[in-house]
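Hey team,

Filing this mostly as a record. A colleague (T.K.) asked me to run one chain through the structure pipeline before their review meeting, and I want the input and output archived in the tracker in case anyone asks later how it was produced. No errors, nothing strange. Just documentation.

Input sequence:
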Amino acid sequence: MSNRKQFQFTIGVIAYPIFFVLIIWSVMSFETQFNVNFNKYGVYPLTLKGLRGIFLSPFIHGSIEHLYHNSMPLFILTMALFYFYRPIAWKVLFWGILFSGFITWCIGRPSNHIGASGLIYVLVSFTFFKGIFAKHYRLIALSLLVVFLYGSMVWYVMPIKQGMSWEGHLAGLITGVLFAFIFKNKIAKPKKYDWEKDSYNEDEDPFLKHFDEDGNFIESIEPEEDSIIVRYTYKEENE
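Output structure:
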C-alpha cells in the first residue's frame, strides 16, 4: 500500500476510538446504576472459567479512577493505530486482546485481572517497535512521541505497586513486540530514490552524464543516436 493511501484521515480514525471508549464507560455506568460488579468476569489465571475474561476483561474496570486513567491513552493510541496502521488496525486490536489476555491467564496470580491496560501496553509496544523496524520517518516520529508520552509505563511491567496487574502489562508488552515482527505486510515503506535501487546503473544516469570521470561539469554532451537534432540557419537580409 502506498504511503498516500495509508496516511489518510478518515472518519474511522476518530469514530472507532470514540466508540471503543464509550463502550467501556457504558459498562461502568451500568455497574454503577444497577449496583452490580463485573469483576468476576475478568481473567482468572489457570481456570477454565477464567478464560472468558480474555475477551471481557478489557471492558471491565474496578473504579472510575481506573477507567479514567485508561481512557485517554486508549483513545490516543487507538486513533494513532487507525491513522498510521489502518490496514492492520483491527487485527492488532482483536489479536492483541486475545494474545495479551491468554498470556495473562498463563502467568497471572490467582486473582481477577481486569481493565484495558493490557491492550494499552499492546498498542504502546507495537507502535514503538513497529516504527523503529519500519524505518519510515513518520513512523519513527510516532515511536519517539509514544516514548515521550508513555515511556514511564515500562516500570509497571514489574510488581512495584500492590493491587496492580503487572502481569497484564507484561503480557501486553510482549504481545506488542511480537506483532511488530509478525505484521510486516501492508506497512508503509521508506521511499527509495533511483540511486538506492539494486537496478541502478551510473552509466545510464542522465544527470551524471554531465560530469566527467574527475567530477568536472561538462557544458555540453554529444546527443544520442536516436535523439532528434534541430539545426537553425540564419540568413541576413539584403540591404
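Quick notes for T.K.: The chain has a mean pLDDT of 83. Helices lie at 3-6, 11-34, 53-56, 64-84, 89-107, 117-134, 137-150, 166-182.
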